[in-house]
Design a protein that fits this description.
Oligomer: single chain
Number of helices: 13
Strand order of the largest sheet: 1-2-9-6-5-3-4
Radius of gyration: 20 Å
CATH topology of the largest domain: Dehydroquinate synthase-like, alpha domain
CATH architecture of the largest domain: Up-down Bundle
Bound molecules: nicotinamide-adenine-dinucleotide, glycine
Length: 375
């Protein structure tokens, strides 16, 4: 059995490891045992992932002498609402969770954000472990301790910074992930190259097909590089106070507006929105003269080549949706990243040269959006 790759997240007393590799679901109990406050875990999963991996994960804990139960929530973003959150807390308390119980999030970003938030407030805080099962969760949401739920004011408007004790990214579970979800996660992989690692973007261009087709070594490498990048940024700016962690929001101001316009639903997945948003960030940067048009075109070409939806027309198979640049800008203002009404963008001076700015000429922004709508 090959040893997993380990990436450390260095946060003083809250440091933890991310283990990446095949077969980790079956080794979870042995790997986690020494970190547990007591011999009991409750696995939180969703109704799609629990039947696939819940019993195997629970068995790996019981085989290690740890009591394990599985609680499920409905699959999808709707579980990240107050009502679902309240039901989960009650379910956990009904099962007699105590302060020495560890919660284990088995699923994508929805389960991870929800379980992490529950762990941060339940009995004033219990430990939790992330077992991310989507590519997006393995390279982004399970790492860095952002937890939260949505309100009618927007996504992730209520939440905490609360770090897991361990992240176990089992690369084999990606085999059951629908291709569309895999691609959405791949957009977040590319993001790390675009932020500050041009060599990794080159690698992505050369290896995207292998990563997406299931090459185990390349998948592991892509996840490891992504986690290394995220761990480095989170260690330097855990609470996003220094315009450093904010770089991870490359593509997110645009992406958030697209998600808001499409109702945060199945028409446009979060990772798809980030992919389209990154292409827009490069487009706007080129129009402002910050980066070359050829680099913007290169990024667009790579994202389109893997099959990410970049054209607004046709998103979610809907050619008749009416897009409006003023409405999109309105959504950007409602984003929690906007400070005192000023839009915040991550723009680029080139591939691997991202920076945060609050000085974007609104006429240029509107011109870029109008062109994207017409394309
Ligand atoms: P998700 O959790 O909804 O999972 C996508 C779908 O795939 C679900 O239907 C799920 O049941 C299914 N699925 C998961 N793993 C599977 C597997 N191995 N095989 C088959 N099906 C599987 O979506 P996501 O893209 O993982 O996460 C999106 C969420 O993450 C959003 O709520 C977003 O706000 C959040 N997020 C959080 C952070 C953070 O830093 N905390 C970062 C990025 C995104
Ligand atoms: N996904 C952005 C962050 O974790 O900060």
């Amino acid at each position: 059995m090959s040893e997993p790759r380990i990436v450390g997240v260095n946060l003083a007393g809250r440091s933890y490891d991310i283990a990446i590799g095949p077969g980790l679901i079956d080794r979870a109990g042995a790997l986690a045992k020494k970190l547990l406050a007591g011999p009991r875990v409750v696995i939180v999963s969703d109704e799609t992932v629990a039947p696939l991996y819940g019993a195997r994960l629970a068995a790996s804990f019981t085989n290690a002498g740890i009591d394990a139960a599985v609680v499920t929530v409905p699959a999808g973003e709707s579980s990240k609402e107050f009502a679902g959150f309240g039901r989960l807390l009650s379910d956990l308390l009904d099962r007699g969770v105590d302060r020495k119980t560890t919660l284990v999030a088995l699923g994508g970003g929805v389960v991870g954000d929800l379980t992490g938030f529950a762990a941060s407030v339940l009995l004033r805080g219990v430990d939790f472990i992330q077992v991310p099962t989507t590519l997006l969760a393995q390279v982004d949401s399970s790492v860095g301790g952002k937890t939260g739920i949505n309100t009618r004011h927007g996504k992730n408007m209520v939440g905490t910074f609360y770090q897991p004790r361990l992240v176990l990214a089992d690369t084999e579970v990606l085999d059951t992930l629908p291709r569309r979800e895999l691609l959405a996660g791949y957009a977040e992989v590319v993001k790390y190259g675009l932020i500050d690692d041009p060599a990794f973007f080159d690698w992505c261009e050369a290896n995207a097909a292998a990563v997406l087709e299931g090459d185990a070594a390349k998948r592991t490498y892509a996840i490891e590089q992504s986690c290394l990048a995220k761990a480095r940024i989170v260690a330097a700016d855990e609470r996003e106070t220094a315009d450093l962690r904010a770089l991870l929001n490359l593509g997110h101001t645009f992406g958030h507006a697209l998600e808001a316009e499409t109702g945060f639903g199945p028409d446009l997945l979060h990772g798809e929105a980030v992919g389209a948003g990154m292409a827009m960030a490069f487009d706007l940067s080129a129009r402002i003269g910050l980066c070359s048009e050829s680099e913007a075109a290169r990024v667009n070409r790579h994202l389109a080549s893997v099959g990410l939806p970049l054209r607004l027309r046709g998103i979610g198979g809907n050619n008749s949706r009416t897009w409006d640049s003023a409405r999109l800008i309105g959504h950007m203002r409602g984003d929690k990243k906007a400070a005192a009404g000023r839009l915040t963008f991550v723009l680029v001076k080139g591939i691997g040269q991202a920076f945060v700015t609050r000085d974007v000429d609104e006429a240029l922004l509107r011109g870029m959006l109008d062109a994207a709508i017409a394309a």
